[in-house]
Amino acid sequence: MKRRSRMTILWWIIGLASAVAALKLVIVWAEPYMSFVPRRGSTPPPPGFRPLDIKAADGSRLHGWRTEIPTEGPVFLYFCGNAGNLSDRDDLMTRAGANGLAVIAFDYRGTGESEGRATERTVHSDAEEIYNHALGTLGVDSKRLVLWGHSIGGAVATELARKHKCAGIVLEGTFRSAVVMAKRLLPFLPVAWFMTYKFDNEANIRELRCPIFFIHGFQDFTTPHSDSEFLYKLAAGPKELWIVDDADHNDVYEAAPDTFFPRLVQFGQRVVGMEIPAK
Questions:
Q1: pLDDT confidence of residue 6
Q2: Does the CA dihedral 91-93-95-97 come out positive or negative?
Q3: Measured between alpha carbons, how far is residue 162 from residues 168, 200, 274 in Å?
């Protein structure tokens, strides 16, 4: 009888371990698909922009857009959200250029005309490729470079800023971390235990001392504005927080058309050449 009880317990343990291992495999397999919703296709640049093509270290082609790059003043390096491609930001970029912003933007792998497949590792490594292209090929001093990240692009921007110099960061509608987002979406499953993707703005911002401009729509139902408020409190360097009353996740620039781009310009002009305090 005791032997049968021990065997029953053993089978329960084996079954539980198998279920945990299966859940781990499913989460690791699903992470790229849950994190990125790409759309391939042609992405002709909007007025005021020209195509930008870069070959990554592994030979993959990265495609994007850029404006004319001035010899002085801020240059914004834009990291988009996880869905669609640059064509979905056509209006945003057109208005940015029309308001005097110098911008460099690119599509993540597997998105638009960029080759390959986006993962957390590749978006971070490709961000470094674009950063190095801006400095080396386009001749932009790092003290003029403002990293502008929307949603998941905010985590790309903070990770890049953690490793490389920049004038400042604009974080628009970003989140605390991938783990926090997963807990919200699947609160009854221990997915955070098994996740390999981090996209950890919390950890990154704790290390940063450069100026950060947080922007968030009050009506954002994708990532709550409380995430930007939380991150704002973590930031140790110069910082600003702007919660836009009538804006959702993707339409802040439309909800505040008369102030959004001027505030970006003002932030960029203010942080260029600013001395960054030591950590």
A1: 60
A2: negative
A3: 11, 11, 17
Question: How far, in Å, CA of 270 to CA of 109, rounded?
Answer: 33
pLDDT digits (tens, 9 = 90+) for 234-265: 999 999 999 999 999 999 999 999 999 999 99
Residue 227 and residue 175 in contact, taking contact as beta carbons nearer than 8 Å: yes
The token pair at 130 is 């674009």
**pLDDT for residue 176 is more than 80:** yes
pLDDT (0 to 100) of residue 107: 95
Task: Find how far residue 253's CA is from the centre of its chain.
Answer: 17
Residue 274 confidence (pLDDT) above 90: no
- The tokens for 55 are 């070959």
Structural element, H or E, at residue 69:
none
pLDDT > 70? residue 2 = no
Tokens 């704790």 -> residue: 206
The structure tokens 């981090």 sit at 198
Cα separation, 36 vs 118, whole angstroms: 7
| Burial group, residue 278, by CB count within 10 angstroms (0-12, 13-18, 19+) | exposed
Between strands 168-172 and 145-150, the pairing is parallel
